[in-house]
Write a structure and sequence with these properties.
Layout lengths: L1 H11 L7 E4 L7 E3 L2 E4 L6 H7 L4 H7 L13 E4 L2 E3 L8 E5 L4 E5 L5 E6 L2 E2 L8 E10 L3 E2 L2 H9 L7 E2 L10 E5 L6 E3 L10 E3 L3 E2 L2 H10 L5 E5 L3 E6 L2 E6 L4 H7 L4 H11 L8 H10 L5 E2 L2
Parallel strand pairs: 6-17, 9-15, 14-16
Antiparallel strand pairs: 1-8, 2-5, 3-4, 6-7, 7-8, 10-13, 10-17, 11-12, 13-14, 18-19, 19-20
Helix pairs in contact: 2-3
Length: about 300
């Protein structure tokens, strides 16, 4: 029966990339979406599967441990982690980017829809900064004025580039860009390297698939608030069930935190405040250790 159930999901689940859009959950609930499964097609790696479902590479990697991400066997069944606990910071006409998840959330201006997009973020030593900012400019077909630090770095490794890259296939910013306040260097933009979405591949900017940045570009306005956070653990409710979603912390956090799981315990405790609930703390610890990205019940 279990195999039949999986096969039905595989047959009905789409095989193309599309934007993830959800209705805002009812008041008091924090969960959207539903985890699914799929099968690996010939010549696919995890990046290819991720692009089919508008997900990022690393969330597919985390949700499917023990499977070779570069050459998974054809017909291997994979979990598609398309269920999410909404971040506490989400509200109307606000973009929330969680670096630990490598995901961007946007709640529509009327508050009724939630859009979720995978993102590429800054590499180690080129970290994407956290904090609050706003969209100050929207640019179609942007040119890339290469920052001096990047130009010197590329020159030092023998990969010299022009100081200005015009719009086109060689431009790493893609076809659309949202310029953020505080510095002209921090942008949410497209990419000419889609396999880099869901990875740490940028010099600090936030990269989206081209279809996703086009959609986001048309959704938001100048003045839209942007909140960048770095939270590997989220807890939230769906009805009477308390869920925990755990991601592998970024490298810098892992060095700082070591084996300390107190941040996850604190997140769960905060979600239970004012509620009469018995938490399965053993399960909480197991979820943190496994960091499979899919929300799981802990009460």
């Amino acid at each position: 029966m279990h195999k039949i159930f999986l096969l039905i999901f595989i047959l009905i689940w789409p095989t193309f990339s599309y934007g993830l859009v959800f209705d805002l959950p009812k008041k008091g609930d924090d969960l959207v979406g539903e985890a699914k499964v799929t099968q690996v097609k010939p010549n696919e790696d995890f990046s290819d599967v991720a692009m089919r479902f508008d997900l990022g590479y690393y969330e597919m990697f985390e949700a499917n441990p023990g499977i070779n991400p570069d050459s998974p066997s054809v017909n291997t069944v994979l979990i598609v982690p398309t269920q999410y606990i909404l971040p506490l910071e989400i509200k109307k006409n606000t973009i929330v980017i969680n670096l630990a998840e490598m995901r961007l959330y946007y709640q529509s201006k009327d508050g009724n829809k939630i859009y979720i997009f995978p993102v590429g973020i800054g590499k180690e030593d080129w970290e994407t900064p956290t904090g609050e900012t706003t969209v100050v400019r929207k640019v179609k077909d942007p040119k890339w004025v290469v920052p001096e630090s990047i130009y010197k770095f590329r020159e030092a490794i023998g990969d010299k580039i022009e100081k200005v890259i015009p719009p086109g296939p060689d431009n790493p910013m893609g076809k659309y860009a949202l310029v953020l306040s505080g510095t002209e260097l921090l942008r949410i933009h497209g990419t000419n390297l889609p396999a880099g979405v869901g990875r740490r591949t940028s010099a600090g900017c936030i990269r989206l698939y081209e279809s996703d940045i086009e959609q986001l570009y048309n959704l938001v306005s100048i003045g839209t608030k942007v909140i960048i956070i770095n939270k590997p653990y989220k807890a939230g409710w769906a009805g009477k069930n308390l869920y925990l979603e755990a991601h592998m912390p970024l490298f810098e956090q892992r060095i700082e935190m070591g084996d300390d799981i107190k941040p996850a315990l604190d997140v769960v405790s905060a979600a239970t405040k004012g509620r009469n609930v018995i938490v399965d703390w053993k399960k909480v610890r197991a979820i943190v250790k496994e960091h499979l990205t899919v929300p799981r019940v802990v009460n």
